[in-house]
Amino acid sequence: MVSDLAAKGVEFRVCNNTLVSRNIDPDKLLMETRLVPSGVAEAAKLQSKEGFAYLKP
Asked: Domain map of the chain by residue range?
């Protein structure tokens, strides 16, 4: 399912802070994922600089 969605342009980003705090090996991630330093910072960047919205009223 992930591969199918990735082929359609869906991006899967994984928070490195979460991996570290939960002792998860990044080598276990699916190849379709992209590791980002901080999920919160990534969401903020997408909202402020790329026009995405996390929540809409």
From this structure: 2-50
